[in-house]
Amino acid sequence: MRKSIATVSVSGTLAEKLEAIAAAGFDGVEIFENDLLASPLPPEEVRARAADLGLGIDLYQPFRDFEAVDAGTLARNLRRAEHKFRVMERLGADLLLVCSNVSPDAIAGDEQAAEQLRLLAERAADHGIRIAYEALAWGRHVSEYLHAWRVARLADHPGLGVCLDSFHILSRGSDPIGIEAIPGDKIFFLQLADAPPPAMDVLQWSRHYRCFPGQGTFDLTGLVASVLRAGYTGPLSLEVFNDVFRQASAERTALDGMRSLIALEQSLRGETHPAAPTGFAFAELSGTGPVGRLLGVLGFARTGTHPTKPVELWEQGGARLLLSAATTAAAATGPALIAIGLDSPDPAGAAEHAESLLSPVLPRERAPEEAKLEAVAAPDGTEIFFCDQAWLADFAPAGPMPGPVTGIDHVALAQPWHHFDEAQSFYRSVLGLRPQESLEVPDPYGMLRSKAMSGPGGAVRMVMNIAQVGADHLPRQHIALACDDVVAVARRLRSEHPGLLLPIPGNYYDDLEARHEADPELRRLGVLYDRDEHGGEFLHLYTVTVGRVFFELVQRAGGYQGYGAANAPIRLAMQHAAGH
Amino acid sequence: MRKSIATVSVSGTLAEKLEAIAAAGFDGVEIFENDLLASPLPPEEVRARAADLGLGIDLYQPFRDFEAVDAGTLARNLRRAEHKFRVMERLGADLLLVCSNVSPDAIAGDEQAAEQLRLLAERAADHGIRIAYEALAWGRHVSEYLHAWRVARLADHPGLGVCLDSFHILSRGSDPIGIEAIPGDKIFFLQLADAPPPAMDVLQWSRHYRCFPGQGTFDLTGLVASVLRAGYTGPLSLEVFNDVFRQASAERTALDGMRSLIALEQSLRGETHPAAPTGFAFAELSGTGPVGRLLGVLGFARTGTHPTKPVELWEQGGARLLLSAATTAAAATGPALIAIGLDSPDPAGAAEHAESLLSPVLPRERAPEEAKLEAVAAPDGTEIFFCDQAWLADFAPAGPMPGPVTGIDHVALAQPWHHFDEAQSFYRSVLGLRPQESLEVPDPYGMLRSKAMSGPGGAVRMVMNIAQVGADHLPRQHIALACDDVVAVARRLRSEHPGLLLPIPGNYYDDLEARHEADPELRRLGVLYDRDEHGGEFLHLYTVTVGRVFFELVQRAGGYQGYGAANAPIRLAMQHAAGH
Q1: What is the mean pLDDT of residues A491-514?
Q2: What is the predicted ipTM?
């Protein structure tokens, strides 16, 4: 039988995947859309490479959440499909996988789903394309393969059949013998995957994934309050089975456990953070030369110098960056983010609170007339300063440089994989930030876990990233600068400083234009775009990396609270392609 | 409040755990039984160290599957409890955690459970010990904390209360407000753990844990047969989302995927392995000197030499080992297992089958008069030879040395973590072995995954181990030698060659004697023991490691089919303690 494999099944860039798949003797591939979007190769080039390698493009996938929708959504979905048909024509692919709708807004009722799928099949037929409809195991209404077949039969169009996926069938315990009820010529595609036994029952969850209070989602304050109301006088005892903790330093883990209990007691007493940060005072980078040149290009100016230390102040709008002459250690890895200053209503109180939570308060040498700075070390070694306005006077600044940058939007730190839970505890209890979105982002050679946290009112936003085990690149840090016109910045930088901004592949814009009425200037300028479900918008772009650090320029509109997570795989792929 | 932590929550040996826990400022610890069993420190010494560190021993845990049993089991369980009470007296611990019974044999009915727990509490009281009864979320009949309280109240003994564990309560979605129905002085202990959201719904399973056909547990042959009967004529296409594959070499993954489809097609055609191995012909080690000395001590003799290669044959009973003069590469890591010879009814057929599954058939230089050997490379590089009897003649052996060793029982190979699935495919499809037990073993600094596979009739047994990510030691290989009297071997080796066998801690035997009527000679000689549910018995012991290799001596009785998995954590801990 002909043998195919989805590009998502192997690692690397799309070009590398095709090479490896051809070398193993496969006849064809399923092009997984994200692999195409992150590839700099236009579809025609992918088609040519596959042909040169003797590979057919047997399927393009996935097309999601199409059917069982209201009229307005249907119109948008058909428009989105037309964009995909054009991409498929360029690829030379004539079979599109449509997964059953998983949206909570999907409408029950097979007739409507069938009618809409028939419409899709008719449109597809104009392009010589057929539709393979697949029941996802977690589909909103259609989750069984026989149900998908029922809908496809109802739709009754020669260009509409089903795709069977062994995972979606067997993971639900469905009996595959029912497949024999489907005419073979209506089974348009067969995807095979095996799986270990359901990997996570409550026993597995308990034995491998527990964590310390505050690192998960349980309401332990409520539980312990009930225990205390019952009159319990015994100890609070941590019993945590966690595969990461088993491999980490016992000293750090024990200390982190103790921190979690202290924070729990504070929470039981109803104590909130005494001095939650209200903004970024500054971010400090090691290495002056290359970073200074980059800041200059971005519109920053050096506005002050520290009287006793080799530290420069660079400003633009409300964004303040410190550049510190590189130490020997920093010189080896290149520029890196070494400290963050947080505006605090009560720096001494914040430091005292940090100390109560066992954070190492850093000694600080200073001349008598200089501002006193309270600082603690974060788990990854980054110094965190609690600042009032006094620190700025030390630099005798000339006043901020005007420009499109208005401040620091967020800072993303890279955590070693075995310090992720610890870092989360630190940012939560010591800094008073609250967890926001958490996600796993595929990158070409692994997975990136990411968690965003923010202070009251979104004033301070921080993102923790860890490279999953196996990723072979150095962890990167980045500073996102808030900006009131990213498009204008992109226009200037793309023309005056070619190579400074990360290039974005055209395939990304093909997809963006399928999803939104996107301004064609975004494509021309390589600006990334995201929109949330409430209509909030996010425009952003990235500089190349200098040492371990890169900059992002971001523009939020309409109350957008996220971080452009949907675009992260593109960014990671392009950073890999750029060789850093 | 007093703050405690279970020793299982941090990494290291028991002594290291106590140090780290004290340094973090905890007041007490829960001693997790496995940590004690794997520790060379007797309970009195653990007690003294904890006291020196200012730590109380607040709880000893867990005691499992005690209540709701028949009369015979109750008597055995009370005897087991008496052993634990004595250990607790030596530790200075006065609170024992009893988890609700999870055995399928547990009897429903609160009265019987309560009555038996009261009996346990009475016995415990004679030792000044109290019992904290905890509902495990996956308990057979008692899985809710209020149910545990109902049983404890029914038992009505002052020395019996409940232990509350936030994980077991909140993971089930139970409301903690019910805790206030329990008198505070009957809540004997409170264990705290947080957890991320249920980590494995079917979506997570699908997106991260799929694998190629034959690497999991789905019946894909059956599914594809149904698809073919339906008349499908399209491709077989692999769609596998797997975090490990994302990080592994694309070339190897693609090749492994292709192998899985070829094996699936063979299975669809009803083809079985044409020449499944019937036994071990030999195992070959690199490095002659240190391994030869060890083999001599174990009772092997050099019985032959290869006419043209620097390879020696060593024999005892039916066990044949080849020692090959170390290559430069092998000299760096010390002795290692480099090849395995399998008795094959049709070596050429086996090699041809391996080749059809894309295994690299190895070129073999040989003199014209020498036996032809068919060999393929396993994924970890180990050479696998398919042998008939002819190979032995090359060595002109003097005849096997008599001795207690009768043959090779099994061989354990260490796999790099990202080749585990690939190795499983190889052993299954290329060698015709079938998966047996699969387990995860905690070692002091991580987790070890292990999978046993065996040929028809248990003739060939192989174990694949991978160190989980984060384990910092070199992967070890071992050869288990079947033996008809392990106790006699131990007696001779312990007296004549002190230091040759891995020492086994006394705490292991305290536990063994609680579970079984164990021969006291096992303790004296440091022999490990396991018994299966059908009464099959397993006695075994380990040598120290030479280079990357160690030997195990095993004795099976009563149809025992396992590998002494229950003892693996002890072995790993003692290997760590021995510094290798």
Answers
A1: 94
A2: 0.79
pLDDT (tens digit per residue) in B338-356: 999 999 999 999 999 999 9
At B316, list the tokens.
Answer: 């005892």
pLDDT grade for B245, boundaries at 50, 70 and 90: confident
Report the mean per-residue pLDDT for chain A.
Answer: 90
> pLDDT tens, A168-206?
998 888 899 899 999 999 999 999 988 877 655 677 777
Inspect the interface and report whether the beta carbons of A237 and B192 lie closer than 8 Å. Answer: yes
Residue B329: per-residue pLDDT: 59
Question: Could B239 and A27 be called an inter-chain contact, meaning their C-beta atoms sit closer than 8 Å?
Answer: no
Q: How confident is the model at residue A326 (pLDDT cuts 50, 70, 90)?
A: low
Q: How far is it, in rounded angstroms, from Cα A538 to Cα A516?
A: 13
The average pLDDT across B110-128 equals 97
Q: Answer yes or no: is pLDDT of A329 > 80.
A: no
Burial class (CB in 10 A: 0-12, 13-18, 19+), A464: buried
Show contacts of A196-200: CB within 8 Å, 24+ apart: A196/B209, A196/B211, A196/B215, A196/B216, A196/B217, A197/B216, A197/B217, A198/A171, A198/B200, A198/B202, A198/B205, A199/B200, A199/B205, A199/B209, A200/B198, A200/B199, A200/B200, A200/B204, A200/B205
Quote the distance between the C-alpha of residue B247 and its chain's center: 26
- Whether residue B532 is predicted with pLDDT greater than 70 in this model: the reply is yes
What residues of chain A lie within 8 A of the CB of B33, using their CB?
Answer: none
Beta bridge partners of A551: A479
Report the gap between the CA of B430 and the closest CA in chain A (Å): 17
**Does the pLDDT value for residue A471 go beyond 50?**
no
CA B169 to each of CA A202, A220, B134, B144: distance values in angstroms, whole numbers, following the listed order = 12, 11, 10, 7
Residue A167 Cα distances to A467, B254, B340, angstroms: 28, 19, 36
In this complex, the residue of B1, B226, B235 whose CB is nearest that of residue A3 is B235
- Residue A410 contacts residue A462 (beta carbons within 8 Å): yes
Q: Are A420 and A333 in contact (CB under 8 A)?
A: no
CA distance B169 to B195: 12
Let me know if A52 is exposed, middle or buried by CB neighbors in 10 A (0-12, 13-18, 19+): exposed
Contact (CB<8Å) B190/A9: no
Tokens standing for A267? 């929470």
Whole-number Å distance between alpha carbons of B558 and B532: 9
Q: Is the pLDDT of residue A472 over 90?
A: no
Residue A51 burial (CB count, 10 A)? 12
The per-residue pLDDT for B467 is 64
Are B190 and A224 an interchain contact pair (Cβ–Cβ within 8 Å)?
A: yes
Across the interface, whether the CB atoms of A200 and B205 are under 8 A apart is answered yes
CA proximity to A133, closest of A98, A106, A104: A98
Pairwise CB contact (< 8 Å): B183 & A253: no
Between chains, do A235 and B189 touch, taking CB under 8 Å as contact? yes
| Chain A closest-CA separation from residue B496 CA (Å) | 38
Distance (Å, whole) CA A219 – CA A223: 7
Shortest distance between the Cα of B507 and any Cα of chain A, in A, equals 22
* Residue B101 distance to chain A (closest CA, Å): 14
Least Cα separation, residue B224 to chain A (angstroms): 9
pLDDT score of B218 more than 60: yes
CB atoms within 10 A of CB A8: 25
Chain A residues touching residue B240 (CB < 8 angstroms): 6, 8-9, 193
Q: How confident is the model at residue B466 (pLDDT cuts 50, 70, 90)?
A: confident
B200 or A435, higher pLDDT:
A435
Find the CB nearest A211 among B195, B234, B258: B195
Record: contact A210-B194, CB cut-off 8 A = yes
**So what's the pLDDT on residue B224?**
93
Structure tokens at A349: 């109180």
